[in-house]
Amino acid sequence: MERKLVCISCPLGCRLTVTWEDESDITVKGNRCAKGESYAQEEILAPKRVVTATVAVAVLAAAAAPAGAAAADAATADAEGTGRATAAPAAAQMPRRLPVKTSAPLLKEQIPALLNQLYTMEVEAPLGCGDILLEDIAGTGVDLVATRSLKAG
Amino acid sequence: MKEKRADAVVIGGGSAGLAAASRIAAEGHSVVLLERESELGGILNQCIHNGFGLQRFKKDLSGPEYAERFVQAARKQKNLEVLVETTALEVIPGAVHAVFGYSKHGGVTKVDAGTIVLAMGCRERNRGNIGIPGTRPSGVFTAGLAQRLINIDGYIPGRRVVILGSGDIGLIMARRCTWVGMEVLAVIEIQSYPSGLTRNIVQCLNDFGIPLYLSHTVSAIHGKDRVTGVTVTPLEEGRSEEAKSFDLDCDTILLSVGLIPDNELSRKFGVRLNPETGGAFVDGGLMSCIPGVFACGNVLHVHDLVDYVSEESERCASFVVEYLKGEYRSPHHPVAAGANVKYVIPNKYLPQTTNRFYLRSMIVKNKAELVVALDGEPLKRKKLAHVQPSEMVSFQLDAAELSRVSESRENKLEVGIY
């Protein structure tokens, strides 16, 4: 087997040619330092990526109510996924999405399942930056954490 | 109209403004910070991907995490007053500068201050800036606008997208669009090399098998109400090869075709701008041609790492503090961009202290050398493993290295890359 990679360990961007018969015997050519070797090994054997995404922030009835019926209607429409931009005054201070990341790189093959889970996930304020939202994703020991804090609505 | 007085007004509450405002306030000076949005943090809030803070914090942070550290630091400053949802609309320069902020809640606030820090950041070049022919349907977004729609507002701007320009925001959005279920058909780049970082090419395009067409451009946009497709044309030796054009069926186009320092306000009140950077001409203390008006961050020149913005802005703040104490140093001597260098910031230097310079290469080269000359004679050489236009270069000169500076000469520094 042979694969061409670009090493991203530093800005030099060495063009690597990786060849192997079986996974215990990987040869890397084109690297200018040892980082290229280990980068190529990991990319072939177990490529991993940090996942960054967002999850929905629950619009609480209490937060929507003071703005009156119009805001409540808009909030309901959003929850059903049919809504347009609401810009309801009561919701203005509460972001609609919470940015999240995995606490460590995740195997590439495990990413689609995580993303699917995130599409339907909803969190409630208050939250702190770094709070764990999903623990030990698929037994990897990697968590999903909030990357900003949210004050209570 | 409300009236306030402060030692410094900082315009913009993104990474530059936060770092500068906190540092000035920490030195005991009163600061008013004007922020247009309802939250501090600026563009970092929508940059939910990681890769921030590797230099400054030795940590791989997302944009919001990086912002939150600076917002919390700013909140602790007793001398710092933050006005959010307040847009600086006008500045009247003078012995004391008057800054007029407008807010839909509070009306007009006038802040009188001896110093101003311009920290408004930059904006994206758009379709008008690059003049793409074709119809004018909906579905054409700048990459940063799409990023905001997806990451902050929670909307998906389309289904099938073509990205024009391989700047970092475009590359990051290629991955983001894929991860929210959009189909990214291609990234089209007019240059023969990518304009974004290599790690973004690898992790945002190669990971998903998204093709990158170098030396290609979008020669037409199709569709009446909504985009229905684009025509992509290759360039050979600078000429469009129309016979080799092909069409892609898409409903969305994202533009990642460069950033422009947002200096409309600065221009209006007389700040002299540098056509090479789009930012102010600044002296060794990052002060513009108007005494007491400083600039830092992307409004001065577009940076590729926020870590550099924070460093530059804190350094700017220390010069503001010197100015406020009546200890602003001079003379400043000129700095010029030499061979293969697009620009060097600042445009002047102070010989009796340590000067940090940022510059951008015009060439792609491995094993390059940075050469700094003083009045034509080499003063400093630095080996650079790799240079390319998308990676900013930085170096320092301290007072000892500048000991050859004397009153009898021009003392012009010229910075070249060979």
- Structural class of chain A, please? alpha+beta
Low-pLDDT runs of 5+ residues of chain A are 65-91
CATH superfamily of the largest domain in chain B: FAD/NAD(P)-binding domain
The main pleated sheet of chain A reads as:
5 strands, mixed
DSSP strand (E) fraction of chain B? 35-45%
Question: Which value, in Å, is the CA radius of gyration of chain B?
Answer: 22 Å
The CATH topology of the largest domain in chain A: CPE0013-like fold
Instruction: Count structural domains of chain B.
Output: 3
Described by the principal axes of the CA atoms, the overall outline of chain B is globular
Percent of residues of chain A in helical segments? Answer: 10-25%
Q: Going across the major beta sheet of chain A, what is the strand order?
A: 8-5-6-10-9
Task: Summarize the topology.
The complex is a heterodimer of chains A (153) and B (418).
Chain A: E1 2-6, E2 15-20, E3 26-29, H1 34-45, E4 48-49, E5 52-57, H2 61-64, H3 69-79, E6 97-102, E7 106-107, H4 111-119, E8 122-123, E9 132-134, E10 144-146
Parallel strand pairs in A: 5-8
Antiparallel strand pairs in A: 1-2, 2-3, 4-7, 5-6, 6-10, 9-10
Chain B: E1 2-11, H1 15-26, E2 31-34, E3 50-52, E4 61-62, H2 63-75, E5 80-83, E6 87-92, E7 97-103, E8 107-118, E9 122-124, H3 127-130, E10 140-142, H4 143-153, E11 160-164, H5 168-179, E12 183-188, H6 198-205, E13 212-213, E14 216-222, E15 229-236, E16 239-240, E17 246-248, E18 252-255, E19 259-261, H7 264-268, E20 293-295, H8 306-324, E21 333-337, E22 341-345, E23 348-349, E24 355-361, E25 365-374, E26 377-387, E27 393-397, E28 413-417
Parallel strand pairs in B: 1-2, 1-8, 2-5, 8-20, 10-18, 11-12, 11-18, 12-13, 21-28
Antiparallel strand pairs in B: 3-4, 6-7, 7-8, 9-19, 14-15, 15-16, 15-17, 21-23, 22-24, 24-27, 25-26, 25-28
Helix pairs in contact in B: 1-2, 1-8, 4-5, 5-6
